[in-house]
Design goal:
- This protein is an alpha/beta fold and 225 residues long.
- The chain has nine helices and nine strands.
- The chain has two domains: 99 residues, Enolase-like, domain 1 (2-Layer Sandwich); 114 residues, Rossmann fold, CATH 3.40.50.11590.
- The strands form two sheets. A six-stranded parallel sheet has the order 6-5-4-7-8-9, sandwiched between helices. It has a three-stranded antiparallel sheet with strand order 1-2-3.
Length: 225
């Protein structure tokens, strides 16, 4: 298990034992899990992650027990975050995000791009993951590098992270890096003085990420289920 996942799962395991599943929705772009505990109804989102191999074809489906997940113990649904099947990982991360107790006193409603621009204008910026704001960021940064597992256009392959991230003053990392197991290596390549943001719907709004060297965590809080 990856170090960051150890800590995230430890944060919610006790709560998972006392909560129950209310609903699961897997869409083309987002996955939503709704749970109920003694505090009421809570929802969690995650990006619908794409499979990175062909193991979802043939006899083994992307969700092994599709149609029966509402009967699962919640801890089993949470542990899907460690699956080899990315659709199951999406369900597991949506469950994780539903279980997290978010300290609203530490939060403010702001677009992640605004934070990146605040710290990255005129500086060297690296973005792990291709986001729609890339053209806007390119206009403001001194240098902009975009690292992608499936690069397009001017993107660089993710394998260039060890060469690129140490050069960046500001690093924006997609939250799906936690889900696909690459976060720990990525954060290790960032300079100690770099400003690091983790962003995207999959991103857990957890202080665990701040303890890992991240300066700003930008995710999604479900307020109406």
């Amino acid at each position: 298990m990856h170090h960051i996942m150890d800590q995230l799962l430890a944060q919610v395991t006790a709560k998972a034992a006392q909560a129950k599943i209310v609903g699961i929705t897997v869409g083309s772009h987002w996955t939503l899990v709704v749970i109920e505990d003694h505090d009421g109804i809570h929802g969690g989102l995650a990006s619908a992650l794409e499979e990175q191999s062909d193991h979802h074809h043939g006899s083994e489906p992307p969700v092994k027990d599709a149609g029966n997940l509402l009967d699962y113990p919640l801890i089993d649904l949470l542990n899907l975050s460690l699956s080899d099947h990315m659709t199951e990982v999406s369900i597991g991360f949506a469950t994780l995000n539903a279980l997290l107790d978010v300290d609203l006193g530490l939060c403010r409603e702001v677009n992640a791009l605004d934070i990146i621009l605040e710290h990255g204008t005129g500086r060297d910026v690296a973005v792990v993951g291709h986001f729609p704001f890339t053209p806007r960021l390119k206009q403001s940064a001194k240098n902009l590098w975009v690292l992608e597992r499936n690069p397009k256009g001017n993107d660089l392959p993710a394998s260039e992270a060890p060469n690129i991230l140490p050069r960046a003053d500001v690093v924006a990392i997609t939250g799906t890096s936690i889900a696909n197991g690459t976060f720990d290596a990525l954060i290790a390549h960032c300079r100690p003085d770099a400003f690091v943001v983790v962003l995207g719907a999959t991103t857990p709004l957890s202080p665990v990420l701040l303890d890992a060297g991240v300066h700003a965590v930008s995710g999604t809080l479900v307020v109406d289920t």
